[in-house]
Amino acid sequence: MKKTLISALLLVFFVSCEQMRNLSDGPETYETEKQRAQTKKTEDMDLRLPSESTILDAGKGFTLLDALGLDSPVDYQTKSITFNVALDKVAFMPLISVDSSAGVIVTDWYSLDDGQSRIKINIRIIDQEMNEESLIVSLFSQSLDNDRWVDEGINSEQSSKIKDSILNSARSLKIASEL
Predict the structure, then answer these.
(1) pLDDT computed for residue 161 by the predictor
(2) DSSP 87-154
(3) Which helix (H) or strand (E) holds 169?
């Protein structure tokens, strides 16, 4: 019993030390090609993440769950087909917030019609079932009237079209991946 307790404490200590060592690496230090590719994709997509953001650190370090051979919840969400499809669908828009563990994507305003109207999209992935209740999409629109933005509310029709597009693409990818 004593040996098991000491082994467990040592394991926790070593895991903590490894995570602290990874945190001390500078932001320009790339450990893997995957991290380099993620950073490049983030720059290409014009993601404006705060400097303290850990969204790109999902696979970094060694955790206790890894030591026990278990997948962490973040890994599960990161592998979400629906989330990745939704992110790809709004990649042309500037993003304000992307949280893969919560399944939330929030875009900034995107101008249309030579700057006379603009849209903003909020996406929330509820679960991985890929049905109508699994996803909430809200498309907000505004129009310019005498140098003032007038809120037109949520465009339900366009929100529904975006939702259907995301779900159809996610279902197709899931079927293709199972072949």
Answers:
(1) 95
(2) HHHTTTSPEEEEETTTTEEEE--EEEGGGTEEEEEEEEE--SS-SGGGEEEEEEEEEESSSSEEEEEE
(3) helix 156-178
CB 79 within 8 A of CB 168: no
N-terminal to C-terminal alpha carbon distance within the chain: 48
CA distance linking residue 61 with residue 23, whole number of Å: 9
* Distance of alpha carbon 139 from the chain centroid: 18
Q: What is the pLDDT of residues 14-53, one digit of tens each?
A: 666 665 555 555 454 445 555 566 566 556 555 555 555 5
Please list, in sequence order, all residues whose beta carbon lies within 8 angstroms of the beta carbon of residue 120, skipping any fewer than 6 positions away.
106, 107, 108, 109, 110, 139, 140, 141
Query: Which position has the token pair 């014009």?
Result: 46
Residues 6+ apart with CB under 8 A from 18: 61, 62
Where are the chain's structural domains? 2-178
Amino acid letter, residue 33 = E
DSSP 94: P
Q: 100-116 burial by CB neighbour count: b if 16+ within 10 A, else e?
A: bbebbbbbebeeeeeee
Helix or strand (DSSP H, E) at 165: helix 156-178
Decide: 87 and 41 in contact? Cβ < 8 Å: no
